[in-house]
Specification:
Oligomer: single chain
Order of helices and strands: HHHHHHHHHEEEEEEH
Number of domains: 2
Structural class: alpha+beta
Radius of gyration: 23 Å
Helix content: 25-40%
Number of strands: 6
């Protein structure tokens, strides 16, 4: 018998979010590990916030939301908030009830920048790798180091001469520029909105873009990431970052791991774009 396509009329739902998530869903195991690491970093979170004033976004929820953004490749904070508004799986993972309001994207970005400035991401990754159930999966015998170009959020219009010449014509700060015939190099030019971004081309015949270099060290037995770095884009960055990561992780056997820092200040991390920026 054919069912009837009726418009839902229920006003209330009494189904717990916990019952909505399948028992074998991968996010269940991930959240268990996250909560174990987070319990040991409460003091670190407390130092990032003032003692008085309006409560900010709980750092634990903020961190879980950032993980969802990475897991599901959500391209902007605005889309992430949209997903949190109607996606019950996302709400359960972050710790929001079905009725809790989601955060404003701009507020979310400002709170996220506080975590990045406090180097919480590196400490969190180190905490995960130090878990007994994760450490037994790590191997120092076989590993790979790979790199990629990360395109900066800075516009090519911001790549101007360092000496201040060639000012834009009247017409506002976003006025059109004519770069025809102008030779631009990293030695003579720099971005005004992202000074750490460098003009770089991926290969012969490819266009040059403002970029950063991302580097990842991965152990080959289980494909786990051991270290991640962000450096300036140049011809030797990948080799230099690989040697630094090998040196820093040479003694990963028995003693607990120490958090590593990137070589570019948090203000220039592409994940946040320009300082204080928010991807919409």
């Amino acid at each position: 018998m054919r069912g009837i396509d009726e418009k839902p009329t229920q006003l209330f739902s009494y189904v717990d979010l916990e019952r909505r998530i399948p028992l074998g869903h991968p996010l269940r195991a991930i959240r268990t590990l996250i909560d174990e690491v987070r319990a040991g970093q409460s003091r670190t979170f407390t130092k990032l916030y003032a003692r008085h004033g309006r409560p900010g976004i709980p750092p634990e929820r903020l961190l879980r939301a950032l993980l969802l953004q990475a897991f599901y490749s959500v391209r902007s904070e605005r889309l992430l908030m949209e997903q949190l508004d109607y996606n019950l799986l996302f709400r359960w993972f972050v710790g929001l009830s079905a009725d809790d309001p989601v955060w404003d994207p701009t507020v979310f970005c400002k709170n996220r920048d506080r975590l990045l400035a406090g180097d919480v991401a590196a400490k969190f990754l180190t905490g995960v790798l130090n878990l007994p159930e994760v450490r037994k999966l790590l191997s120092s015998e076989h590993f790979s180091v790979d790199g990629t170009l990360i395109e900066a959020w800075a516009s090519m219009k911001s790549f101007v001469p360092k000496d201040g010449s060639n000012e834009p014509p009247n017409g506002g700060r976003n006025a059109a520029r004519d770069f025809h015939g102008e030779k631009r190099t990293n030695e003579t030019h720099a971005s005004t909105t992202d000074p750490d971004a460098r003009l770089f081309r991926k290969g012969s015949g490819k266009e040059a873009k403002l970029c950063h270099r991302g580097h990842i060290m991965m152990e080959n037995n289980h494909g786990l990431i051991l270290d991640a770095r962000l450096t300036a884009a140049n011809g030797t960055a990948e080799r230099a970052a690989a040697l630094d990561m090998i040196k820093d992780n040479a003694g990963r056997g028995e003693p607990p791991l120490e958090p590593t820092r990137t070589t570019i200040p948090p203000a220039s991390w592409p994940v946040a774009g320009n300082k204080g920026a928010c991807r919409m």
